[in-house]
Amino acid sequence: MPGTVTLVRHGETEWSASGRHTGRTDLPLTGDGEYEARRLRDRLAGRAFGRVFTSPLQRAFRTCALAGFGDAAKIEADLVEWDYGDYEGRTTSEILAERPGWLLFREGSPNGKQAANVGARADRVIARLRAADDRTILFSSCHFLRVLAARWLGLARSEGRLLKLDTASVSVLAYEHDSRDEPILALWNEV
Q: Active-site residue 81, yes or no?
């Protein structure tokens, strides 16, 4: 029987709270973010995972640890958030004032990673996930997880734009009828 993949977005950071794009800037969780991450422990209690992977960025790793999975976690570089380049630390409204019609999921960022690069990383992660029939949990960041979910479903990476994801949310990727030919979102953005 094919496994499931639980996705956890990190808890709140100063920039996620203010809507600023946080890619490679390694920000810590806020006090509220630490609280959100600790609450994940109760929400995920009783669930066993064969593999635990986390982004190397402290916001994801700390969330993983506070949720009770730090001892089992392996750092996975492909889970790191999008590199926003010139748009790092800026809000979408600030970017749109300069570049009307801009969409991260379609265009990427100047001097950052383009959407194709992020999609390729997501595809590598999915290939590794599908190679094992176990329950896996991933701790990462918003935009990367949205691309990962779109690609899991066989959609274009740009369709990640349709999947809102809150801090400290839990989502589950699975298969309908236990068939690898029918990937589904079994749960999305549960807070």
A: yes
